[in-house]
Amino acid sequence: MEAMDLLKITEAEKKALKGRGLILTNDGEHFIARIVAPNGVFTNEQMQMVTDVARKYGDGRVALTVRLTIEVQGIPYENLEPLVAEVEAAGLVTGGTGSIVRPVVACKGTVCVHGLFDTQAFAKRIYDEFFVGWHNVTLPHKFKIAVGGCPNNCVKPGLNDFGVYGQSVPEQDLDKCRSCVKCGVIERCPVHCVSRGPAGKIVVDKEKCTNCGKCIKACPMHSFSEKERGYAVVIGGIWGKTQRLGNNIGGVYSEDEVMKLIEKAILLYRELGKTGERFGRTIERVSVDEFIRQLKSDDVLSRKDEILAVAAKAKGGASC
Predict the structure, then answer these.
(1) Cys-Cys with 227: which of 33, 41, 171, 180 at CB 3.0–4.6 Å?
(2) Which of 316, 231, 240 minimizes the C-alpha distance to 66?
(3) Residue 300 CB neighbour total at 10 angstroms
(4) How far apart, in whole angstroms, are the C-alpha atoms of residue 286 and residue 284?
(5) DSSP strand E in 80-223: where?
(6) How far apart are CA 256 and CA 94, in angstroms?
(7) Would the pTM of this model clear 0.85, i.e. be above it?
């Protein structure tokens, strides 16, 4: 299709295509197709498919997005549907746009030496439940979820609408501390929250501690043990035209508890958010303390069916 013919495509048609991850580029002639895999994990067969469709239907180029999707570039209009058919046959989808839960991102905690849990497996569970299962739930704006394996925050959970990162909460037994001249815990702590107290015994500043768990294996006297392992939750982060660092809701949560918190966060956003308003701005308007109070209660779950019925008729405000 020639550029002149493309002008005959209505704005409504362009919007519908964009909602499927088929986006008109700035040359006015070609599209990109955004291919989504669970938290950016593609099999070798799926990667071969991407190579094949890029060659057959695009200009041969592919690009990685910041949310771990792949974009096939330089696609003429008439090649869009054949491309989508091959993508779906490989068990993937095009998409990742609109006022919905966006593709979930995860760091490499699954294989990283710092990872406290299997980030890709947990992100896949979130992907299946909320990106796939809630795909038709229209929100006031886009809703991004990030899963980090430890407090290093490589995937920036605090700048996503809902962020999760691993926690290994240490417990100290001062009776086992031998006031060693060279303290492995002091040397190993990445945030320098450990110092010597009375009689040379080490003291932990719990306000600075990030629960990375590095201290647990650092003491030869085993004066540290793991009290609890789970996830920290951060809500309302924004990275875009304006920025907002998310709010840590406090506490350490199990995987099942995190799944429930995500569900409640999405429901509250749909219920309290205004069209075009990012999740973090909704939290600010309601007030951080009040929003966290509602998030930690189960009141919103009793209104789930009503909220989802409204969501089916709602108009989202995301433009990208």
Answers:
(1) 171
(2) 240
(3) 19
(4) 6
(5) 93-94, 105-106, 145-148, 162-172, 194-196, 202-204
(6) 28
(7) yes
State the DSSP H helix or E strand holding residue 1, giving kind and residue range, or none if neither: none
Contacts of 190 (CB under 8 A, 6+ apart): 210, 212, 214
Are 130 and 109 in contact by the 8 Å Cβ rule? The answer is no
Residue pair 25/19 in contact (Cβ under 8 Å)? The answer is no
The two structure tokens encoding residue 66? 């910041």
Query: Cα(267)–Cα(157) distance, rounded to whole angstroms?
Result: 20
H-only helix segments in the chain: 3-6, 11-19, 44-57, 80-89, 119-126, 184-188, 255-272, 279-286, 288-296, 304-313
Neighbouring-strand partners of residue 163? 146, 234
The answer to whether the beta carbons of residues 239 and 252 sit under 8 Å apart is no
Angle at 129 between CA 123 and CA 133, to 5 degrees: 135
Rounded CA Rg of the chain: 23
Residue reference for tokens 């920290």: 232
Chain CA centroid to CA 161, Å = 8
pLDDT in tens, the chain (320 residues): 444 455 578 899 999 999 999 999 999 899 999 999 998 999 999 999 999 999 999 999 999 999 999 999 999 999 999 999 999 999 999 999 999 999 999 999 999 999 999 999 999 999 999 999 999 999 999 999 999 999 999 999 999 999 999 999 999 998 999 999 899 999 999 999 999 988 888 899 999 999 999 999 999 999 999 999 999 999 999 998 899 999 999 999 999 999 999 999 999 999 999 999 999 999 999 999 999 999 999 999 999 999 999 888 888 877 77
Q: 79 to each of 27, 58, 76, how far by Cα in Å?
A: 17, 8, 6
